[in-house]
Amino acid sequence: MAVSGRPASARRNVTLLIVCQALCYFLTSVMLAVSALAGYHLADDKSFATMPHAVQWLATMAMALPAAMLMRRLGRRNAFRWGASLGTIGALIAAYALFIEEFWWFACATVFTGAFNSFAMHYRFAAAEAADVAWRSRAISFVVGVGIISAFVGPELAKLTKDLFTPHVFAGTFLTLAVIPLFLLPVLNWVEFPAAAERDAARGRPIGRIARQPNYIVAVLSAMTAWGTMVLLMTATPIAMIVNGHSFADAAFVIQWHIFGMFAPSFVSGWLIERFGVLNIMLCGLGLAAAAISFGLSGMTVTHFWLTNVCIGAGWNLLFVSGTTLLVDTYRSEEKSGAQGLNDFTVFGTVAAFSFTAGYLQSTFGWPMVNMIVIPWIIGVACVVLWLKLRWRRAAGSG
Question: How many CB atoms lie within 10 A of CB 331?
Answer without folding.
Answer: 22
